[in-house]
Amino acid sequence: MFEKGAPIAEPKGKLGILLVGMGAVTTTFIAGIEAIRKGIAKPIGSLTQMGTIRLGKRTEGRSPLIKDFVPLAEINDLIFGTWDIFEENAYEAAMHAGVLEKELLVQLKPQLSKIKPMPAVFDQKYVKRLSGTHVKKAKTKMALAEQLIEEIADFKKKNKCTRMVMIWCASTEVFIKPHVVHKTLESFEKALRENHPAIPPSMIYAYAALKSGVGFANGAPNLTVDIPAMVELAEKQKLPICGKDFKTGQTLMKTIVAPGLKARLLGLHGWYSTNILGNRDGEVLDDPGSYKTKEESKLSVLEYILQPQVYPELYHNYSHLVRINYYPPRGDNKEGWDNIDIFGWLGYQMQIKIDFLCRDSILAAPIVLDLALFMDLAQRVSMRGIQEWLSFYFKSPMCAPKLYPEHDLFIQLMKLKNTLRHLRGEELITHLGLEYYD
């Protein structure tokens, strides 16, 4: 429990942002930061940079920028470290990803070319559609973790970082169910030494980060830190963790539209969703094992928002189908198409159709920035364990074992902002409007 008006250590010095995977999301994020530093772009989509927060009553007119309200690391104080299965530097990887215009990347080439990935912890059994040669080798998974721990320490020393966070921006791994080896830190470490198949690379990274005193955010639907052993380690190390799966395209739309249907008590017969995408993420998801992991993440959203057990007449037995198709010509410009069959007064049927032609990495990049800065804030306040207040950024947010995850985007945003108000000793905003009744 953190107290109201909790002391917050100032963000002095450099903040190291360690990024696993240097594909479309990571390169779009890093290039964006460099463009913002040069004054040739704006941090659009970033709550930490452009968002405001209302304080007190509406009549007080206090709505500062979030970055002016809580002490966050400055854009110019960010240092990037990456791991990847390919040796390309950030400039080459960004060119290969094809998200950003070449003219922009050429302007940023001096900065991007300096960022070279460290060899990755990788096993093709967990991401079957990818293969690379820039990969670590060791006899055990524990030995791989120890290599990462050493690299994290070297990176911090070399770049003179005062704090660090790690964010998983790599591919979706094959579906893994919670296993007995995930239950305690002791059983997990034993499994690392024994090369247990229930420990994929993402868990090795997360373990290494937490052992190194670095908070971890999971941008993919992988299990990763959403297991008791990792929660135990985070609590023990007094570090924040959060995830899973950046909330970008189609699921972002669901968490906007579904709360509106529920608010108006409009019933749902079915929600059919299909996605086409052609980047590396699409190629990875073309494998049934990785697709299963993503599908589980996407399917959980409606169930928790609509609460069919509370509103059985409106949401019992609705059909919810999700399809993802790899279509190379589309590149990073993903298209999410939704057909929503609803019913209203007297049971009369209606339809909603959404065609969201989005850019996945453009939507993800500001999420990476916000998570890095908010995770750093959490570390400086000693907020340990699962950071449910950061659910705003995830498709399948982590939560305490006895709770269900909150998926409603507007409740998530209120929780995030109220957490910031609480940290700074401000009154929480309830929108009750008692002044009307005085």
Rg, nearest Å? 22 Å
Give the overall shape, derived from the CA principal axes: globular
Helix percent band: 25-40%
Q: What's the level 1 CATH class of the largest domain?
A: Alpha Beta
Enumerate the spans where pLDDT stays under 50 for 5 or more consecutive residues.
Answer: none
Q: Could you say which structural class the secondary elements and strand pairing correspond to? A: alpha/beta
Number of strands: 11
Please describe the biggest sheet, giving its number of strands, its sense, and whether it closes into a barrel.
7 strands, parallel
At the fold tier of CATH, the topology name of the largest domain is Rossmann fold
What are the secondary-structure elements, in order, as H or E?
EHHHEHHEHEHHEHEHEHHHEEEHEH
Q: Span from first to last CA?
A: 34 Å
Number of domains: 2
Mean pLDDT: 94
